[in-house]
Amino acid sequence: MFIEIITPDKKIFSGEASLVQLPGTDGSFEILNNHAPIISTLAKGKIKIINAEKNTQFFEIKSGVVEVLKNNIIILAE
Hints:
The chain is mainly beta.
């Protein structure tokens, strides 16, 4: 899956991932390869990304929106 995390100031992440865990407003959820299309709001918390090499990265956000479509994930975060 290809993922981008964009803030009002800059793009803070762009790359391939095997798993993305997000802080949804109704609770945490994960996105894996071939996930169904979804648009969701995000709450304050940490975004967890596991890339193809199994390395884990975390990004702290205050709020945001995520769109998943055809193995492309776009996160607009604050």
